[in-house]
Amino acid sequence: MTTIAAAPTAPTAPTAPTAPATLSRPGGFLRDVGLVAGRVLRITARMPAEVLPNLVITVVFYLIQIEAFAGVTSFVGVTDPEGFFLAVAVFFATAGGAYGLQLATDIERGYFDKLLLTPVNRWALLIGSMGGDLTRALVQVLIVVGLGVLVGAEFGQGVAGAALLVLLAMVWALAYAGIGYAIALRTGSTQATQVASIIFLPLNFLTTAFVPEQALSGWLRTAVGYNPVTYLLDGLRALLSADAATGTVALAFAVVGGLAVVTLTVAATALGRRAR
Fold first, then answer.
1. How many angstroms separate the CA atoms of 172 and 248, rounded?
2. What letter does residue 50 receive in the DSSP assignment?
3. What does the pLDDT read at residue 3?
């Protein structure tokens, strides 16, 4: 019996292991900023009690100031109390936003550390959170400016002046937000971040919030000269005046913008330390 031997088969090349599927993250930095900011705004929508008290206090205080101090300010040359105190109301609207509080909450709960393990851009965590808070501040500023129009505040520079007024207010909001975010990132504590609002008190009362500078005297007049809010209020009031002083507005932008550079630098440094 004849046996037929099977032909030898050629060895097969080993197959390369299949790489695990990975999910790409489209959009990059801007998408990350939008997602973080959107989360802050969604939290605000679910818990409006975080922002409504500041808005209500600002509106009520503005209306009371007009009635209570109108007679006093007339003796020092203020002819438009609605506009004079509108600058203070705008300052209140931007300075009561609890900046950095949500970020401090995320740090305390460990959510921030989880985000650091994801591909999210580290700078987007700060810029996006600030963007959400500044959007809330912008809405409040626009509401207050609209109220000023209703009660008869004079906008001597028209629409352009009103736009510059809102821009100056938001530069101040950015500078003030830097303080809250620096404390939140440095301490990771909601209590410490909330205590930072104490800074608001001297910034408000050691300034020309209630009467013009020429009506002040002694150490108080000296103190208001070192307060950046004094220059903010002067700039806001100049933009409401029919004969706006360009130098006053430029000085306000320079002082507030310089302060923003300082506070944001401190906040960015705190982010770098925490994200290491």
1. 15
2. G
3. 46
